[in-house]
Amino acid sequence: MTLSEALRAAAQRFAADSAALDAQLLLCAVLGVPRSRLYSHPEQGLSDAAAQHFEALCARRAAGEPVAYILGRREFWNHALEVAPGVLIPRPETELLVETALTLGAGQPGWVADLGTGSGAIALALASERPDWRVVATEYSPAACALAQRNFTAAALPNLSLREGFWCEPLRERGYRLLVANPPYLAADDPHLGQGDLRFEPLSALVAAEQGLADLRQLAAMAPAYLAGGGWLLLEHGWEQGAAVRALLRGAGFAEVATYRDTGARERVSVGQKPVLGETA
User: How many Cβ atoms sit within 10 Å of the Cβ of residue 249?
Assistant: First the structure.
């Protein structure tokens, strides 16, 4: 079987929209080659050992297991991150949260926190882009903490640190310029939980009470005590939750409340600014 034949047969087995890409990533992992090799040598044959290994990975993907868990890694913001079951897989739409933070915090060195960092994807992206920021990542799950620490150690960024604890609680400092979070925001009865990669990801990182709003509400309530005047809270949320999150931010006293849309034109990130002393929201 040639590379092109193996890829075509594998992609036909996968139900995901990314079937062709999934097949390529799995075959690259088996062969230890970049994707360009698949295009430049499509006629290359597979050894029996490679074919068996590829078949084993394809069987896992055909059963629905996420490619990121199969390979043990995921790309996010030019970083190759270790990922594992029990920790949320970083997604491309979360890069909007990073982009928005970089824009709102431009020219403002200081303390920044990624609350509930998971794999550490957001914190790594921010720390690598802004060496003048002191980026603190917090995480409640011991398993996620261990994974994030491995990613941080591999990146070796001097302005990045990890603290174990719940949301803002591990933050000893006050006067943060930015607080960012991608908290659980799905309702327990959300039908997407039974579909695709979400079936394999930890519910604790996906589901929140109050129809997905409980953690968003708690973050909006906690954040003002840790932000400097003029500092920003940025929250990723579901595409139908924009209005509710804006109301939570205004209710917590934030000003300049706004929502940013992702590449699919869906409301994805809402922000609010803590008023400077003497100002009102």
Answer: 26
Run of H or E residues at 68 = helix 67-71
DSSP class per residue in 254-271: -EEEEEEE-TTS-EEEEE
**Quick one: CATH architecture of 3-64?**
Orthogonal Bundle (1.10)
Q: Which residue ranges make up each domain of the chain?
A: 3-64, 77-273
Which tens digits make up the pLDDT trace of 153-177?
A: 999 999 999 999 999 999 988 899 9
CA distance 142 to 86: 10
Q: Say if CB 24 and CB 16 are below 8 A apart.
A: no
What does the pLDDT read at residue 15? 79
Give the per-residue pLDDT at 280: 40
Query: Measured between alpha carbons, how far is 103 from 89 in angstroms, rounded to an integer?
Result: 24
CA dist., res. 88 & res. 36, Å (int): 29
Give the distance from CA 61 to its chain's centroid: 21
The CATH number of the domain covering residues in 77-273: 3.40.50.150
DSSP 136: E
Cα–Cα dist 77/69, whole Å: 18
pLDDT of residue 18: 86
**Element containing residue 180 per DSSP (H, E):** strand 176-181
Q: Which residues of the chain have pLDDT under 70?
A: 278-281
What is the model's pLDDT at position 23? 94
pTM of the model: 0.91
